[in-house]
Amino acid sequence: MKTYVNPEKKDWPEILGRQKTGAPGHIRKTVSDIIADVRNDGDAKVLEYTKILDGYDTDAHGLRVTAEEMDASEAAIPDDLKSAIKTAAENIRKFHSAQKTGDVVVETMPGVICRQKNVPIDNVGLYIPGGTAPLFSTVLMLAIPASIAGCRRIILCSPAGKDGKIAPVILFTAKLCGVSEIYKAGGAVAIAAMAYGTETIPKTDKIFGPGNAYVMEAKQQVSQDCAIDMPAGPSEVMIMADDSADPEFVSSDFLSQLEHGRDSQAILLSTSEKLLNEVAEVLPRQQSMLSRKDIVDVSMTKSMAVLFSTEDEMAEFANYYAPEHLIIATKDYGRTVEKIRNAGSVFLGNYSTESAGDYASGTNHTLPTSGWAVSCSGVNLSAFMKKMTIQEITERGLENIGPVIEKMALAEGLDAHANAVRIRMKR
Hints:
Layout: E1 2-5, H1 12-16, H2 25-41, H3 43-54, H4 67-75, H5 79-97, E2 104-109, E3 112-120, E4 123-127, H6 136-149, E5 153-158, H7 168-176, E6 181-184, H8 187-196, E7 206-208, H9 213-222, E8 227-228, E9 236-241, H10 247-258, E10 265-270, H11 273-288, H12 293-299, E11 304-307, H13 311-321, E12 325-329, H14 333-336, E13 345-348, H15 354-359, E14 385-393, H16 395-411, H17 415-426
C-alpha cells in the first residue's frame, strides 16, 4: 500500500488515479451492439445472449421465474439467514418509511394556489447481480423503497446460472419484499430489455441497481431513453482516523471494500503516523485470511494511506474525493462530520462499520461512486418518486397576477402567452 505525506493539492488527481473517462472502447462497442440487438429483436436476442453468456438454453417462456421456483427458494435458505434478512428488511423499511413527505400547498398571492405533489414512478426495473456473489442485500435496498413509494409495477432481472436457476436467496428476498415478477436475464442484456421492452420483459420507466463495467456502461447508454438511478463505478471507501482509532477496526473496514472487485479502492487518511504504521502491520495478517484474497491483492494496488498534519486538511481531501463510503473514526467525530459536504454515506465512530450500511442498519447501500457524490445522492425513497406541480388560479387570482404575466410575456415577444391572459381578464 502506497503512503503519501501532506501531498500538495495540485497532485491530488494523480495520486487518486480516479478519472471519469468512461468504459474502455471494446466495452462500449460490445454494449452498444447488445443494446441494438435486444432493442430490434427482443426475446430472440435475449435468449441468444443468455445461451452464449450465461451458458444455458431456454425458450421465452422460461425467462420468467415461476411461482413454483419462488416457493422452492424458501426451503433452500437456512432459518438463521432468513431471520437475518427479515431483521435487515425491517430496519430498511423503518428508515425509508420515515422519508415520506406530504404535499406542499402555498397560496403565493391571493387567489393563486400552487401545490407540489409526490407521485410514484409507475414502472421500475431492478437489476440484481448474480454470479459468485448474488447480491440479495440489493433486493432489500431497492424493492423496499419501491414498494413504500407505491410504484405500480416492480420487475426484477438477475442472471441465472448454467442450471437455468437464479440464486434461491435472491428469490427468497424478492418474495419477502413482495416482488413476484422476476426474469432470468443478466448484464447489458437485462438493462437493454428493461429499457426498451421485449415480448416477455416489460419496458420500465427507471432502472436501478449495481453491476460490472458492462452493466454500468449499458445504463449510461440507455439513459437517453430510460431514467437510471445514478452514474456508478467501482466500490470505494475512505477512512478518516486519528490516534483514537483502533487499527484492527480500520484494517477490517479497509479490506471489506476491496473484496468487492479488482477495481475497488480504499483510502486511509490520518493525522497519526503511529496509526498508519499499526495499520500497515495489521493489514497483511487480516488480508491473508480472506476467501477473496486474490481479488483484494489486486485492488490493494489501487489503494493508499495519506498522512496529513491537520484534520481540516483531511476533510478538504475527503470532500475533493467525494467517497461512496466515508468512515470517520476521530475523537470528536460529531464535529468532524460537519466539515464533510461530499460523501455517499457516512459512518461515525469506531463501531460504525461500513458493513452495517451494506446490509442491515437501515440506510441504503446503492450510492454514487467515482466522485459523483459531489452532485448525486444515494438511492432513497424520493428516487422512486417524482414531483408534480399543480396550480389553481381563481378570478381574483388572475386579476392579481394577470398584468404581471402579460408584461413579462410581451417583453419576451410571446404575444400568444400574453393573449391567453388578456382574453381571460376581459371576460
